[in-house]
User: What shape does this take?
Amino acid sequence: MALDMVRKRLYELAARFFTGASVLWAEQVNTQAALPYVTIKIGGIRRSTHIVYDPIAGPCYHCETVAEFNLYTEGKPLPVGGKATGNFVNTATSDLMAFANFMESPGAIDILSDPPVSALLKGEVRDLSFLENDRKHRYRAMAEFDVGFVENADGWYGVLDAPLPNASGGGTDAMASEIIEIIEEAELEEIT
Assistant: This one.
């Protein structure tokens, strides 16, 4: 599975849970969305040193990364005596914790299972509201998930399953179609 597919599946899960919020990729050229919204950021990719041969997928590498989810919200209105006060309760941490529960639920694990991707809460859900320096107050919480997946590296050049050329112009269809020559039989002659 390519990293693009992992990114797509994580985005789809966030959008499925946060139906009343915008879900955006962090560090993109976006206008600031209306509250509430969620940003997703994928960290560096760690790949196993050695290739693994899977009987179905062929040669592949185990890969790991960290996905960071930030929730920005104005919270829950705090009425007093049935009247609006203009004050809001910070729900960012509890709302993001509910998302962590969703990500590790049997339903989400089922969605991530074919082909397999794992996403487990790493550490704690942190309240980062104090970092916000905006004219209009908003609450913020952040959670990181350890994400594991398998990247196929089939073919003579390890790019058989990749769309080529990639978005940056790398690889060719000729590389993907190169046939791997395998010695299936050999005759041995004993010399005395």
Q: What stands out?
A: Residues 82 and 88 are 14 Å apart (CA to CA). The mean pLDDT is 89. The first strand starts at residue 22 and ends at 25. The radius of gyration is 23 Å.
